[in-house]
Amino acid sequence: MKISRVLALFLVVLIMASGCYTERISNQNLSYLYDRDASFLHPEFNILHKDDSVTELHFRINSNELLYLQHPESKFYSAFFRIRYEVYTQLESKLLIDSSVVLFADSNLVMDGKTISGILTMKPSQVKQALLKIDLVDLRRNSHVRRYYQIDRENPSCRQFFTLRLADSGYPLSRSYVKNDEVVILSHSSGAKSAKVRFYHREFPLPKPPFSVENPKVFDYEADSIFTMQLDRPFNFRREGFYHIQLSDSTKHGFTLYRYKESFPEVKTVQDLIEPLRFINSNSEYKTLTDADFPKAEVDRFWLKLAGNQDRAKLLIQKFYSRVEDSNEFFTSYTEGWRTDRGLIYLIFGPPNIIYKNSASEHWIYGEEDNASSLGLTFYKVENPFSDNDFRLDRSPIYKSSWYSAVDMWRQGRVYTDN
Fold it and tell me: What separation, in Å, do the N-terminal and C-terminal C-alpha atoms of the chain show?
């Protein structure tokens, strides 16, 4: 395995192991995956396949999230962190087929925020479909963050064979969206010079409440427009919608880029404030907000009416819209994260206490496991050529009372499940 030396990083020790058995990840509580406050650390990871057997793991972390201590004699500040990856065939597997541990150190005479980045090259593997588990630990603070990623070496048209980077930066972007003013460069590991782009502009409806059983509409794959783009050259995606980029028409899979509203994933505009309120508004309240001459003032009045005083209103606003932004980070797929089924539940009920994941679904539990009063919901993964993060709630009338209780709590000026 190779390490890219970037920003004074250096390899301290390397350990590799494989062929042992561990506890199934699908039996573990993974609720921390959807809790931004679960760790001080918020690294970015990006997977790039150089070919069908060799994979690069790109990492990036803000030095401000690491704990630096000053040496009393040299006066240098130093931080140490560790990255360990493990490879399994799937979430349900107990067989560990590959793993490595790498220790890093960073030293500075003057403390100023910077980005620490590097590349771990994983050894060739005959396993084409696998699960990658990554642990990053700040050894000074003993803080820890864990992430999981599906590896797909089988399909050279999938996202992981493409690299997206800003035109003025050499580091691959881990996000799937671009902004109006961003000029990006897209390349493919095969060295292909051009690709076909299918552009879609779709207005997706908000998800129904969890008790409302409905048959989802079939997606119309006929593109609004089709054009050819040059790879390895600067390009700007200006129109809102999503762009499905393919090297071949033989498969629906490809690299999908999204152009959401300019403020995404943050809540910044009045429209950002109003739209999520549809989940807790009555029809007349929502119409009042959308028709108001001064909608921001109307939003403030709405929250103040629910809360009863300004301090409580500020708390409600902070909690509600932080959940919108967190949903955008965790659940975004073909539409913004807060507009998905998981985003709907997360926004109203908050982060679940327990999450179990397997290859086909996620099961969320609010409360204690095996407690009759706890709420359990299951989301099933949808095969979607535009995203591997598309999950649909298994809706049922049994959720009606729980839903209205949660909404009523918000309308009484209280945060539901303030974890």
Answer: 40
CA distance 114 to 77: 14
How many domains does the structure of the chain reveal?
3
Query: Which tokens go with 106?
Result: 């960073």
Same domain for 179 and 66, yes or no, is no
Q: Specify if 264 maps to a domain.
A: no
For 280, the 3-state DSSP assignment is: coil
| Rounded Cα–Cα distance for residues 146 and 198 (Å) | 35
Q: What is the mean pLDDT of each run of 10 residues along the chain (419 residues)?
A: 44 53 88 92 93 88 95 92 94 89 90 88 86 96 95 90 89 87 94 96 92 84 94 94 92 91 94 96 93 95 94 95 97 94 97 96 95 95 92 96 96 81
Could you tell me the two tokens for 68?
A: 């630096």
CA 261 – CA 280 distance, rounded (Å):
22
pTM for this one?
A: 0.91
Contacts 24+ apart (CB under 8 A), 246-249: 246/157, 246/195, 246/196, 246/197, 246/198, 247/156, 247/157, 247/188, 247/190, 247/192, 247/195, 247/196, 248/157, 249/196
Chain-centre distance for alpha carbon 100:
24
Same domain membership, residue 150 and residue 18 = yes
265 within 8 A of 343, measured Cβ to Cβ: no
Picking from 131, 154, 177, the residue at the C-terminal end of a domain is 154
Domain-embedded: residue 43 = yes
> What residue ranges in 306-390 does DSSP mark as E strands?
354-357, 361-366, 375-381
Q: Which one, of 150, 154, 145, lies nearest residue 127 by Cα?
A: 154
